[in-house]
Each structure stands twice: as structure tokens, then as C-alpha cells.
Amino acid sequence: MSTQPPPQPSSSTGPTATTPGSAATPAPTTPPPDPPSRGAAPSPAGEAADFRKRARDLFWGFIRQYRREFGLAVGALALVDAMDVLPPLIIKGAIDVLEKGEGQAMLWTLAGVYLAASAVQAVFRYYWRKYFLGTSHIVAYDLRKQLYEHLQTLSFGYFARNKTGELMSRLTNDIDEIRMMFGIGLLLIMDALFYFLTVPFIMLWLSPRLALYVLIPLPLVPIFVTKVGGYIHAMSKIVQERIADLSARAQENFSGIRIIKGFAREEAQIDGFNRLSQTLVDEKLTLARVEAGFHPTLELIVGLGAFLLILAGGQRVLAGEISIGSFVAFQAYLLKMVWPMTAVGMTINIHQRGMASLGRAAEVLDERPEIASPANAVSAASVVGHLEVRGLTFTYPGAAVPALHDLSFTLPAGRTLGLTGPVGCGKSTLLHLLLRLLDPPPGTIWLDGRDIRDYDLASLRRLFGYVPQDTFLFSETIRDNIGFGLPETPAGAADLAARIEACARAAQIHDEVVALAEGYASLLGERGVNLSGGQKQRLAIARALAVEPRLLLLDDATSAVDTDTEERLLTALREVCRGRTAIVVSHRLVSVQHADQILYLEGGRLVEQGTHAELLAWEGRYARLWERQRLKRELESEQPRRQTGLTPTSAGTEGSL
Amino acid sequence: MRNGFFSDDEVVGRFYDARLIKRLLGYVGRYAALAVLALVLVLTGMGLFLVNPWLLGRIVDLGIRGRDADMLVKLGCLYGAVELLIFVVTYAHNYLLQVIGQRVMYDLRAEFFSHLQRMPLPFFDRNPVGRLVTRVTNDIATLAELFSSGIVMVIGDLVLIIGIAATLIGLQPTLGLATLSTVPLLAVAAWFFQTRIRMAFREVRTRIARVNAALSENLSGIRVIQIFTQEARRARRFDELNASHRDAQLDSVFYHSLFTPTVTIINAVCIVVVLLLGGHMHQTGALSLGLLVSFLTYAQNFFHPIRNISEKVTIFQSAMASAERVFALLDEPEESGCREGAALGEVRGEIVFDRVSFSYTGTHEVLHEISFTVAPGQSVAIVGHTGAGKTTITALLNRMYEVTRGRILLDGRDLRDIAKFDLRRRIAVIHQDVFLFADTVLENIRLWDPAVPPERVEQIAREIGADPFIRALPHGYRTELQERGANLSTGQRQLISFARALCADPAILVLDEATSSIDSESEKIIQEAIKTLTRGRTCLIIAHRLSTIRHCDRILVLHQGHLVESGTHDELLARRSFYHKLYELQFL
Hints:
heterodimer; A: about 650 residues; alpha/beta; ABC transporter transmembrane region fold; Rossmann fold; 6-stranded mixed β-sheet; 4-stranded antiparallel β-sheet; 20 helices; about 60% helix; about 10% strand; B: about 600 residues; about 65% helix; elongated; Lipid A export ATP-binding/permease protein MsbA (chain A); ABC-type oligopeptide transporter activity (chain A); membrane (chain A); ABC1_TM_dom (chain A); ATP binding (chain A)
């Protein structure tokens, strides 16, 4: 991931990092068909300048917001540095006193001043770090919060275009860079500034000629740090990539170990791995050749200064122009100048990377949700659930063929619709449109006689209990997962527990939950219990039921549930669905057979429609599929040891599912 | 990705473990000469480091106070030369240590990786891929760091401290001891704060891991959050984690912020002691002014090595923890019987399963007393519903797993008497989910065997019928496949895996037929390819589509680990039992 461009030492042009080419942002690839807030599409260059400006705005915004903290930080810094500039002068005084052979009293005074200066310095050093570094962590917290909360408002389409990994990088690496800029970056530059404004003048005051000699090699430092530091940073990125290559190679090897062992090709793999490993070592050593010299060079530059000081300064002392004390003080000041010089070089890099990251953060923050509530939205709270679809044609952005083609049907409130058909026939798309994860064309989907686009988005979604095809549960307790959609503090906690349990019972998962060591308090995920696919699906069903939805949407929600359990689950669901509008999407026809109405889709078109009995009588695709699945069930139930012999439920019962 | 930000390796190692260190030093042994040279350089560097403050004192005394301009220039040049030497020596040992660290890392990695290659398959069932990758990359890198910036530098820093102390006492015992009196304070402060900082930092890492895990989970589950309109609540929860991370960071800033002032104060005390006592001694004539200057310079140099050492604790701790994990895996026994055992010679290809039972776990039997014989050159199909144990049979045949009871014979010899490598080269298994490597088509077919020339690979591809589509790829046989062959269709991936098997020219072929259906055009090509593959070989075909096995010499019907029926297609159909139902299902 080349999120950071190589730092540009000549920073007169400012950070050039936010050009779309260099930033790992999918900026203008597939803009949504109708970007409401983007305005006229800006040229790439204009866009880059835009984000640079936005980055600057954000930067100053944070500075303003924490002006008190940053102000205190600068104040503390000034005091610390002032106290830090004093000691060489004190030592100078002491040495001069000693040289002249003056009294002990003066020495004691100087020692006292030295201690006092150090004490003041110590106290404010604490505040200095606290306000600079502490505030930078607070800024990082703010920005992370802002970014996350903003991301939550963005639509389905945005997350389809941007991989989770890339967004994660915004929220981790970029925030780190930004924090560095506000913390150590600001600290270093202010520190350096203070030293530049004081130390050279003291040196000039002590001896103008000597000051000129000694300060000559110092400008080398920032140039060196920027150039070489930039090179080291760029080279480290390459090394990081090699490490990534190596780890990808190892990953592939372990995943394909069956093939490797099966063909007895271990040796070839070892050779290949070692070659990559060698490349990594070579790159790392190339980097080391430069890196090993970084600090020694800085020290050498100081040494060079000291060398000049001894030759030139010694002569000055001999000529009687300066005292020995001044000579020693000079040496101390020389040492003190190295750090700020180094800091300048480092800050340039830190600032460039920080601003680039801030630009990318701004880009995320500027993104507007594609699907939002209309201006004068109507609350959907009192919707009964009468659904009507009229001539719905939907094409995914960029797709050539519509995913749904001229679909029309009516589903009266309280009834159940079954939806089936081969993979990719548009079943899930229809559910996504209903939930407004995707936006249907105006006037195509009506709920209680009103276009769903007119409803307030949140209140619309609250109508639905949705069980997605790919079950997503959170690494939290089972209780929290089932109660996911419930308000945090309903009438009573006992009430809540009862409700969760009732839903778990209906979803046929209660018994298995109770059997766990920690019951409903069991954690899910890597650090908790591992559930089977079927158990996860049933939890997702319980989660959807818990919100007591007006409309229940099941998207192939029982695909991983075993046959016996499915049987019980379907019966229970029929009970739950009574009085609710429900749409059941499934490949397994047993799940839809009791629906009031069944649609068979193919390639986005409605090809068969009717009740189970009607469709069987029609002897079309549905009937063929039914026969096939019946045989398969029969086969599965035929077991050498376990002769249960399930009889398929008879069709035509009065239930609503 | 979901919890990828949690590392399972947050275990804190001991600071020092003699057993592990000894074992680790074994790896450095190969570079003993380099290591000794590095150590000598480090010590030289430290020695040089001691020279210049003393030289500065001499310059003050002899050059300036002695009013000797020649001496001044001479000593000044010496000072410059020492600086230059320091540069050379530091650069050299920095680089040398990297070289040693990198070489050790390479060696360890090579040893570790080849060890893993030689582990039996059940090992990979036990150890998730992600964990093994972490061992190979992170853990070993941590160990290398121990050598490149750990051990030797700690020795160097210790020597420097001792060196400064010795020099000070040597130059002026009374003042030397007085100066050193603050060093224990400095060491205690460094130890105290570094421990706190380390703990705070560990807390920071745990909490940022939680923040990132929550982020990654919430972003992956963003749809569920939006559909259930839980944005506000999720944001609040995230805020708690985010704030707790911020607070941990502020804690660590707190300790940092106290540490530096403490050092400032201790340093000031030290300087003042030198100044007062040294000044007094100067006045009584016991100390030259130059020596006082030297003392003042030395006094400021203590802190550096002490802090360095206390910072190295982290490197030692994590290296010990990594070493523990790496060595634990290195000590697991490798797969035995790979090369040992009788050579196979010419294989006729007769397979006998003799009352074979198998269990992965030791409790639940996946195969139960299976017996059958396949004559050389025969094709036998194994059919059955999911979970019948079909795939397990193939894994037993090439000894990825060993039978629990019973035995398998190849040409009348127990498989256990045959070297595994030899056996596996004669048996090609084609898996239903084709695994392709991120390498060229060529290498994917010949599996990096340089003994197979590209022309031979092309010829094989032509026989299989894969040549036309391979040629149509951007760089033909040299086209790099994406991870897992994502740029190929299912049928094309199948054909490459067939070519791979044919390339190995096995005596026995085991084909686990792909389940996913492909278009009829590809289907025809694949059926042709299977005919080519099976010609003249003993074949076991695990069939999911019964259409492909009608011509097999015999069909074994497996159900829940039992062999329930066997016979030809027509015989089985005539019996109208289990196979019949399977068959009916296929043709609906």
C-alpha cells in the first residue's frame, strides 16, 4: 500500500501527497450515477488542491479547537528551553570564576542558580510533554470518532466500492501519522524554532567570529536528515513490501499444503521460499547500509563542529578574545544545536506525511451518503405493511443488464410471499431495494400506498426484521446479539431477558444456548464459542424477531440449518409470522411452500407465480425443482444406522408460511 | 480480517531464559568470526567514546592554559581524528550487526520453513494458517532484532558504563566517586519509569487492538448496523473503546512526562556536585581546570547507556516469547517414513483395502471396515452422499493420514513399508477445489520441476485440451496466475489441475470430481480430458455427477463410512436401491 509518497525535501511546493495517483484512494473510479453533493466533477489536479486545502482546514480546525492546550504547551516549551539555554552560561561563569581564582561564595551561588533553573525546567518539561503529546492523542481520538461516525452514515454503495481493508488503513495508519504531526511534529518544530531564535544569538554575543565558524557545518544537518531520512522511509516501505510478499508466500504454501505434499514437491517450495527470504535480506541490508550511517553521520557533523571550535576557539582564547568559560560554553551550545537541526529534517517528513493523511481523512469526511431521508420525510412508524411493487426495473451502476426486470406484485399486509429461483435471479436485490440499501427508482415500491423513498430512512428500516444471506454476528454475547436491534433500556431488564429467550425459542436455538457453559452470556467469535453455520443462522433469525418487525425478510435464512431442525423452525416461524407481512427467499422449496404466494424468478424476470399447489399443477420449473428436492431429502433421510424416515410435510395446510 | 488485529501472541516473555539464549546463540555460532568482530568494534567504539572528553580536558590544560598553540592544533587534530574513527567504527558495527541479524534470520527462517514442510498433514489441521504465518514472519523477525540491536549493544552499553566509571575514578578517585554517586539514582529512575512505561504501553497495545477489532467488525457488519438502525448505539460503544485507548495513551504520556524531568534533576545534581567539589579541589590545587571540564562532559554521558539498556528489556522480552513459540514448533516431530522404506520400482497399480477403518479424532469412525480391490488399470468409482467418507479414502491412499485399523496394499505390499515420497510420486490426487499457486501457468503445471521442459508441459496441455485457452492468456504459459487462480474460470482451473496430474505421470490416479457445475462446452472438454488422464492407469474416481462414471469398471457406494453396495452401473441400477436413488436425483 503506497499510501505515503516519498517525502519531498524541497517543501516549497507544499505537500503534494494528495494527488489521486499517489493516494491509495479509489477517488474517481466509479462515481455513483447521481452524486447529489459532489457538484461538477473537478479535474484531478483541482481535486488534489481541494484536499490539500481541506487538510489545511482540518489542521487549523484542530489547532483552534485545542488552542488552550497548544497555547499552554508552547508556553511551557518556551520556559523549558529558556531554562535549558542557561546552564552553559552558568558553567561558563563557574569556570571563569575558578580560572581567576575567585571565591567559593560565587561558586555556591552559581550552583544554586543551576539547580533552580533545572528545577523550573523539570516542572515545565512535564507540562510541555503533557500538553503536546497528550493533546495529540486527544486529537487522534476525536478524528477516529468523527471518521467512524461519519462512515456509519454512508451507503451500501460506498462500502461496495471501498474495501474494509482500505478504510481500516484510514482509521489506523493515517490517524497515526496525523497524531505524530500534532504531537511530536509540532513539539519538534516549536522546540527547534526556539533554539534557532536564541542559541545562535548567545553564541554571537559570546564571540561573533567563533560563532560563524562553528555554525558553518550545522545547516548540513537538516538537509542530510530530510534527504537521507526520506530515503530510509521509502526504502523501509520496500522492505515492508518484501515482508508482505514473504508472508503471502508462506500463507499460500500452508493453504496449499495438500497439493505440495500430494505431489511430494516440498523441496521446490523450500527453494522458492528461501529465494524470497534472500531477497528480503538483500533489500534489508541495502537499507542497513544507509541506515547504519544515519546517527553516526549526525554525530560526525557535531564532531566536525567541535573540531573547528577547538582549532578556532582555542586560538581566540590564546589571543585573549574569549575566556575559557566561553570556550566550554560554546561546546555545550554546539551540542544543543544539533537536536533542533535534526528536528527540522524530521519535522518536514512528519508534516508531509501527516498532511497527506489528513487529506485522505478529509476525503472520507467529505463523502456524502447516497441514500438519505428526503427533506420532508414521513415517519413510517404507523405502517401496517401493505407492499406493492409496480414495474420495478433495477440495474446496478455500471452493469449492462438489469438485475430486476419489470417486476410487479402485491403483498397484502399480514401475508407471506415466497421468493425462489436460481442463483443470481435477483431475489436478494429485491430485499436490498426494500430496505433501501439500494435505491429503487421513484414510484416502483410502495408501502401502505406511499413510495418508500418518501419515508424517513431510519423509521422505514425499523419496520423490518431482516435475516441476511451471509450471517453476520458480532463478537459479543449471545444475548447482545439477539437483542441487537432493541433499545438499550426497555421497560425492565427481566422483560428484556424474557423477550430474548422467547425469540431464541421461536428460532429453535434456545436449547443449544442453554446447553453452553455460560448460556446467553456466552461470547461469540474467535475468543468465544464457535457456532455452526446453522446455529448462526438461527441466532440471526432470533435477532430479527426480537425487534418485533412489521415486515419480516428472510434471505435464504435456513440454508445451513439441518433438515430436522428446519422442519421445527419453519413451523415456529409460521406462528411468528402470523399478522406480519413476510418475504421468504429460499432455494429450498420446503421453506416457501406454505407462502400465500410464491414467485419464481429467473434472470431478474418473474417466470412463475402462484401458490405451491398451483405451481405444482403448472408442472414448470418450480415443480421440477420440488421433485428434485423431494428425492434428495428422501436420500438424506435414508441412513444405515438411524432409521427415522421423515415424511415430508403435506402441502396445503392453512398456515401462512 | 475480523479479528486480525488481535494477536494471539500478547504473552509476555521472561527477560532472560538461559536455555533459550543458549539455543539462540547456536545460530550465531556460524557467524562467530563476524560476531567477534562486531563485538570488538562495539568495544572499540565505546573506548573511543571515552577518549574525547578527556582530550578536551587536555586541550584546556596543555593547549590553552599552557598557552601552547602547536599543542592546541595537535590535540585538536587528534580530537577530529577520534571523531572520524568513531564514525567509521560505529557505522561498521551498526552494519555488521544488521548483517549478522539478517543472516541468522535467514537461517532460522529456512530451517523453520523446511521443518514445517516436513510436518504431517494433521499438523496443519491443528494449526491455523494465520498462526503459522505469524511464526514464520513476525516471530523470527523479533528474534533477529535480538541479534541486530539487542545482545551486543547491551554488552557495549554495560562496558561503556563501566568504562566511564573506571576512567573517572582513574582520573581523580575522590571526584570520580562523587560523580558516580548519582548513577545508582539514575539507574533506579530509569528502571522504575521504564517498567511503568512498558506496562502502560502494553495496555495501549491491548486497547488499540480492541479499537481496531471493533472497527473492523463494525465496518464488515455495517449493513447489519444500518438495517437495524443501531448507528447511535454502535457509535457510543465504539466511543467507549476509543476513549479507553486515549486514556491509556495519556497514562503512558504521564510516565514519559515524569521520566524526563526526573532525569533532568538528577543530572543537575550530578553537575552541581562536580562543580562544587571540583571547584573546591581546583582551588586547593588538586584538580586542573581541564580535568574539571572533562568531568563535566563525562557526567552528561551516563544517562545514555543506562536508558539504552532499560529500553532493550522490551526486545529481550518479546524475543524470549518468540523463541519459545518458534522452538516449540521446531521440536515437534517431522513426518516420518518420507524417504525411509523400500523403493517402489515399477508399479502395476493393484490396490487392496483390507478391512480399513479410520478416525480423525480417535472416537468417531469416518470409515468402517472398508474392503475392496482394484485391479491394475481398472477404473473404480466411489459414490455416496456428503459425509460418506469418500474423500478420506484418497487421503489414506497417499498416506496423508494413516489407517486406524486394517491395511492398504499396493501391488501386494503394505503402504507403510513404502517411502512416502516414492508413494506420492506414483499417486496423483486431483482435488475437487483446485488449488493454484500465484505463479505462472507453466510452474503450476510442472510444480517447479526443472526436469520437465516447457515443451513437455505444452504437449501435456495439448493432450488435456488446455492448450487453446492457455495460449489465449496475455502471456501464454508464462502468464502469472492471481492468488488461487482468480483470473481463470472453474473449468479452466480444472484443466490445469488435470495437466498437473498428467505431468507427474502417476501410476495411480485419484480424481475427486469437482462439484460445481460448469457450462456444457467446458464439460465436454473436461470429459475428454478425464479419458486421456485415466488411460492405462489405475483410477479411483470420487464421483459427484453420476453421468461421468457409467463406464467405470466398478462402482462402490459408500454411506456414512460403510461400503453399502458395489457393482457395475447396470448391476446397481437393476438392484434399484441406494444407487438408484442417487442416480435418479442426478437426472432430474
